[in-house]
Design goal:
By secondary structure, this protein is α+β, with helices and mostly antiparallel strands. The protein is 41% helix and 15% strand. The strands form two sheets. It has a three-stranded antiparallel beta sheet with strand order 1-3-2. A three-stranded mixed beta sheet has the order 5-4-6, with no helix packed on it.
Length: 153
């Protein structure tokens, strides 16, 4: 299921880029659009995005993709996730309060998204204790799924 309407329009990205002295490029627009049309719960690494765009006939270099997803993550447009040890994954950053967390199987690489308001409540209490303001809260639980426990690697 894809989101009903984009959470970050190309116009909003262009305005934010302009305010930072950068410009909207066709490549940045394609990358934003790709993340906005991903089914809910799907995450892409830079390499996954590169392969997907190549299949779609887009000619965007891997280095451009790396720079763009990093920039969009710093701007808060994408959410950077460390789901596996070998590389980061990205997803569109949903408007609050869309905090969700991830359960990751180390054998099958299966990722399950889940919501738990208690995790956010605890993170706010800890942040308040130290004078922080919560911008994002991510819990990633690394484990072995039932399928992973049955498989032999």
């Amino acid at each position: 299921m894809t989101s009903a309407e984009p959470t970050y329009s190309p116009e909003a990205l262009k305005a934010e880029l302009n305010s930072k002295g950068c410009r909207m490029t066709p490549q940045r627009e394609v990358i934003l659009s790709t993340f906005q049309t991903l089914p809910e719960g799907e995450h892409l690494s830079a390499e996954d995005l590169y392969e997907r765009l190549k299949v779609q006939g887009e000619n965007i270099s891997l280095s451009t993709i790396y720079r763009t997803v990093k920039m969009m993550a710093r701007m808060g447009i994408l959410r950077e996730l460390e789901l596996t040890e070998d590389h980061k994954h990205y997803e569109i950053n949903q408007p609050k309060p869309h905090h969700h967390h991830h359960l990751v199987c180390v054998k099958t690489n299966r990722v399950i998204e889940f919501k738990n308001d208690q995790i956010l409540t605890i993170s706010k209490k800890v942040a308040d204790k130290y004078g922080f303001s919560v911008l994002d809260c991510q819990l990633t639980i690394i484990g072995v799924s039932p399928e992973g426990q049955r498989s032999i690697f």
